[in-house]
Write a structure and sequence with these properties.
It contains four helices and two strands; from the N terminus they run αββααα. It is mainly alpha-helical.
């Protein structure tokens, strides 16, 4: 099952899935304090200056980020560290080996599940 954008962020593991999606699928260099939509326009643009998201997509990401911040606050996690461990590629201080165990396990589980191929028995025999 490919990595998908969560419908809601209600657990620390959902934060990890959301941030992995932003980093790996959207390829967005994000910061938890930044808005995806504000001042009547999408704030993230591609290298050509065009909006990276539609208005509904940007508003959805804003809602998910608010939920992520709420979960991190409730669980007493540093949301900025979570974001850095997921996005700071090549920065030694944010090497995954230095991440808290729950975060390391959540990232590995999300990455592992996104690479698995699932078979639906209703589709007939699996082709090799």
């Amino acid at each position: 099952m490919p990595l998908t954008l969560p419908k809601r962020v209600s657990t620390p593991e959902d934060i990890v899935k959301f941030f992995l999606y932003l980093d790996r699928i959207d390829r967005t260099s994000f910061h938890p304090d930044d808005r995806f939509y504000s001042d009547g326009r999408v704030q993230y643009v591609n290298r050509y200056g065009a909006p990276s998201y539609t208005v509904p997509e940007a508003k959805l990401r804003d809602r998910l980020m608010r939920e992520a911040i709420d979960v991190a606050t409730r669980e007493a996690f540093d949301i900025y560290d979570i974001a850095l461990f997921i996005t700071a590629h090549g920065m030694p201080e944010y090497d995954l080996r230095n991440a808290p165990e729950w975060l390391r396990l959540s990232i590995k589980a999300a990455e592992r599940s996104s690479k698995r191929k699932y078979w639906d028995p209703r589709e007939g025999p699996r082709k090799s």
